[in-house]
Every structure is written in structure tokens, then in C-alpha cells.
Amino acid sequence: MSSYEEDLLSSVKLEPESDLIKVAIVGDVHDLWDNEDQLCLKQLGIDLVLLVGDFGNESIPVVQSIAAMPLPKAVILGNHDAWYSVTEWGREKCPYDRQQEDWVQRQLDLLGETHVGYAKLDFPALNLSVIGGRPFSWGGSEWKHGDFYQSRYGVNSFEESTDRIVAAAEQASHDTLIFIGHCGPKGLGEAAEAPCGRDWKPIGGDYGDPDLAAAIAQVRQIGKRIPLVAFGHMHHQLRHTKERLRTMATDDMEGTVYLNAASVPRIKATETGYIRNFSLVTLKAGIVQQASLIWMNEQLAIVSESVLYRSPLLAE
């Protein structure tokens, strides 16, 4: 057990896993994060915070603030978190000297073992482990940015990426696993409005990560239970229509709930002040009971809640 996991065990006191676990998922931040977020999470009585990336364009201050947050958490970095390092056009716009500095590595160093890309983090007090998919994902079935993944992780294909994710899951101490990715898994629908659907031209197509989907299928075969897969990347607001929002949550025949938490912008102004959003998931006995999107005001009160998923077992 790592020192971080030992600290978690001493700081979170739960009864056996039949007790309710409250998880907050923070979707794409895009520089909209401040000290009030930590106050909100404490007010909500969160047991675990999952942050699914895109904190800013390699935004060291935001990542530094999140890394210092004294709450049980697991993090995965998104495509914007390597914005100036992955593509040629990004490198051309880089605001720092890449020969002298490496802001991608600085973010990884700040987060330490709370960054679960290609890794696992055990939460003994919660009787579950969090498994990270491929970090810095841009989504889709084309293997992109091969040089970046080869140099950073020694990964050269979706198959090798799947193997890394599965290896992390095999090392988990618990049989109940939550998967997080920046982008969700392939297989959640081809429509533009699907959780990982393409909402730019040509409209439609599944832009989920095939390596994450393959890893989830393989991990199930070794007897692990996966109640929740949380991700972001594909924003709720659709680019091709204003008539509806993206499908934010769905489930499958295996009892896994897939939740897209990318409600952007996550902090916005109203006539009475600023409000910010979090996705909330409650689990009991390793089963998702409910998933909601909430908005909180500056007085740390919930001003609206949209239920995205409710377990059919609750109706029995």
C-alpha cells in the first residue's frame, strides 16, 4: 500500500461496502476552477472525487490547486493538458521554451500517484479501486500522436494501450473497479448525440476509445465488477444543434453506468451570482444507485439537480 493510500485509509471512515458512497466527477474544467470548488465538495460530503481532465492548455496553476486539494481523489489528464506538446501546430503556439521546460511532465509530477492514466489507485476505506484509461486521449478509432505515446509510455498501438489498462486493473486490490478516462469507451453509440458521438462534420460516428472498451471487456472476464465508467471530452452542448444536449449517462446489460461529466462551461454567471457544476454518483453494495448533474451557488447550496440515471432496482 502506498503512502497516499495509507493516508486515505486513515482519513475516510466508512462501514462495510453496504454503506452509501458519494462520488463527485469533475468534467472538463478549461481553467474554470477556484478555491470555492473545494468548499463545495466538502459541503457535499464527498467520499471520492474523480477529475477527468482538460484542466486548461497545460495549465500548471489549475493542476497545482487540484493536486493540493486534501480530498480522496483520482485524476486523468486530457488532450488539452498536452496542448502544446502533442501536435505540430500546438508546439508552434507553445508559450514556453520546450527545450528548457516540460509542462506535461510538471503536471504529472504535481499529481503523482493520484494521476491514474495507465495505473490504478486503491481506496481501501471504500473497498474499491480506480483504474485509468489512456491519458491525454483525443478520442476516436484512429491511433493518433504515436510519437507522443511511444516516448512517454512506450505504447505504440491500441492493442498495447489495452494491455497497459488491463495490467493496471489486474494489480488492483479490490474487485469493485471504477474506470475513468478523458474520453469514454467506444461502443456507446454512433449518433452525434451519443455520449462519445461526433458532433462536427461529417455528423455522427463513435469517437470513443477502442482501447478503453477492450480493456473493460477483458477486465470483466477476470471477475472484476465495474459499476461506473466516468469521462468527459465530448461536451454536453452539441455543436451541430441547440435543440438538445448530448446523452450524458447510459448503462449496459452488465450493470455498468457510463457517465459523461463534460458540462461546459462548468462555472457560469447568473443574475444572482456564479454557479458551478459537479456530477454526483451514489453507490451502494457496488451498484450505482443514482447519477445527477448539480449546480451550486456561491453560498454552497444546490440550486438545481438533473437526475441522469436512477437504478431500476430502486423501483422494486
TrEMBL record:
One of its GO terms (molecular function) is hydrolase activity. Gene3D superfamilies: 3.60.21.10. Pfam families: Metallophos. Residues 21-236 form the Calcineurin-like phosphoesterase domain. PANTHER family: CALCINEURIN-LIKE METALLO-PHOSPHOESTERASE SUPERFAMILY PROTEIN (PTHR35769:SF2). This is TIGR04168 family protein. The lineage of its organism: Bacteria, Bacillati, Cyanobacteriota, Cyanophyceae, Oculatellales.
